[in-house]
Amino acid sequence: MPVMHNAERYNCRVYCLNQRILFIRPKLFLADDGNYREKRWFTTWKPNGKSRGLDKFVLPASLQKLTGAVHVPFGHGAVSTLDTSPHINLCLAGVEIIGNGSGSHHQLRKLDQRMDLIRGATTKSGGVYLYANQQGCDGGRLYFDGCAVIVVNGQVVAQGSQFSVKDVEVVTATVDLEDVRWAYRGSVSSRSEQTSSLDTVIPKIDINFNLCHDDTSIAQPTAPIDVHYHVPEEEIALGPACWVWDYLRRSGVAVSSCPSLVVLIRRLWPPSLASCATLLSMLPTRATRR
């Protein structure tokens, strides 16, 4: 979400809980290669020294009335719940749950690389990794292929669809944070040495909320699953089809104007893919949906 703070525009994630805004977290590193030009629109959040701390962000009047808060923390920090260990400070610093709100576009076999990076990160240091990705098109030539996943200590416990025409897809799992804190991280003695010498300070946002249940009979941890990968032929078939459908849905194109869209697609896509425009004929009754 774009947020203006101190006359600068930042690309941010907004953390909410029970109709409250916990804090706003701007991006520390912007993508400026390949198909991305974030630096054209946004400013990088640059901490001063070891820790810049947290600034106060004044909420708009409408949000002040809705949430009852005037200021919220803005910057680089970690959310600390009532059941977060108080003596630990991101991975070595003690953060058990890491969230990644990504905007990764589809390329053939890119999901393999994506999963290797996510699983590798939690295999080395332990933790729960929540990966979310956009799904659909934004009016351009790129298709964002979703596939949200939840990974615990290097094992995938939940996976969303890679190609879908749904508006929203939610992926959930039940995890045991004790498996992260003691069973996984606590079993590596060298981690204690590294943690004791850690001098990085991460500001915390304390909230009056328990993330865990003491009664283990309520729910059991979700069992690991095998990652589902599409073969290249399926990716080639599903990716362009979902892009076309999402383009039609977002633009509100009626059936009568579909031929003009076919011309547009033929200009955007290479000749080898232009035949995919014939997929429009499969959606005559749903193309009028707005």
TrEMBL record:
The record's annotation in PROSITE patterns points to: CN_HYDROLASE
Please tell me whether the keyword Ligase is annotated for this protein: yes
Domain of life, per UniProt, equals Eukaryota
Q: Where is the CN hydrolase domain?
A: 1-177
Q: Which keywords annotate this record? A: Ligase
Q: Which InterPro entries match?
A: C-N_Hydrolase, C-N_Hydrolase_sf, NAD_synthase
Q: What is this protein called?
A: NAD(+) synthase [glutamine-hydrolyzing]
Q: Which species expresses this protein natively? A: Phytophthora oleae
Q: What is the lineage of its organism?
A: Eukaryota, Sar, Stramenopiles, Oomycota, Peronosporomycetes
